[in-house]
Structures are given as C-alpha cells and as structure tokens.
Specification:
Helices cover 21% and strands 23% of the residues. The radius of gyration is 21 Å and the shape is globular. Strand 3 and strand 4 form a beta hairpin. With 167 residues, the protein is α+β, with helices and mostly antiparallel strands. It has a five-stranded mixed sheet, covered by helices on one side.
C-alpha cells in the first residue's frame, strides 16, 4: 500500500547542487536550520564526501540555500534564501530576523519546489574569513542536451567510418 502523501503540513522539496538532486520531505513549520541538517545528513548517508570537487561541510550552518529568481524558469539564476541582518545607522548590526529565514511556510515554498544549495567556504589563506561566493553551481537538464547526446554521441559515427574503410 502506498504511503499517504496528502498531509498538507509536509512538503517535498528538491535540492540541487551541480548535477546532484536530493529530495527531502520536510514540515512547513520546520526551521531552515533543521532542513539544512536533514539535507546534509541525507547527502552524507549515501556516502558522498564531495560534490563537484567541493567537500561537504561538517556543520549544517555552512549549507546555504537559494531560491530561483523566477520559479517558472530556474535557468534565470538563484538568490540567497537567507536575508542578511540589517545594519542600523550607527553601523551596528540590528538583530532583526526575517520570517523568510525561519521556515518553508514563511518563505512561501510550495510542494515540489526546487532550491539550490551550496557550501560556505573558508578563506583560501586559512584566516577563517568566509568567501562570499554569489555563484550557484546548478546544472539543469535540458531536452537539447539529451537529444544532442543521442544524435551526435555514441559509436554510430565510428561504426560507419569503419564500414566505409572495409568496403
């Protein structure tokens, strides 16, 4: 008997990094801290130690989530889900947390939605400073890629050349 997936409190979210896609069932009310921990645990549970030559972080806090700029066209790019703390006029960081930073419900995420993920990297010189990398490494499959590999790929052309040489 199939599992009941009609629970409105649960969402299936697709997390993408490079060519890797992880499906997770999460509660709309779970904090993104818990969601990131589940994502990192899921990746580690299948024995993956790196994605596209980038090692997995030790802490879920080093996982950064992104949402598509255009939900209907993820190829347009991604923006960071976490809204940075605001600075007040005195240059001090105000401790204002956004509803968007809290839960999938607050962020307006819907069932089946695609999110990107990447890992926070330490500075190359080991000073502990984070590198702010605004690029998202997400490879989206396209019909053209599949068609091109079928039409232009494979050994079909080589086999024809060999047949021509033998005749």
């Amino acid at each position: 008997m199939a599992a009941d997936t009609s629970n409105p409190e649960l969402l299936t979210l697709r997390f993408k990094n490079h060519k890797t896609t992880i499906l997770l069932l999460v509660s709309r009310q779970e904090s993104f801290t818990v969601v990131k921990a589940k994502l990192l645990d899921a990746v580690k549970s299948i024995g993956v130690t790196q994605i596209n030559k980038q090692p997995l972080p030790r802490k879920a806090d080093d996982v950064i989530l992104g949402v598509p700029i255009d939900n209907n066209d993820p190829s347009q790019g991604w923006i960071d889900l976490e809204i940075p703390d605001m600075e007040d006029d005195g240059g001090k960081k105000a401790k204002k947390t956004s509803v968007l930073n809290a839960t999938p419900l607050g962020a307006g995420l819907k069932d089946g939605m695609v999110l990107a993920f990447k890992f926070r990297q330490e500075g190359a010189n080991g000073d502990g400073m984070d590198i702010d990398n605004n690029e998202w490494d997400v490879v989206l499959p396209t019909f053209d890629d599949e068609e091109g590999s079928q039409v232009n790929g494979g050994d079909k052309g080589d086999a024809q050349a060999e047949d021509g040489d033998q005749a």
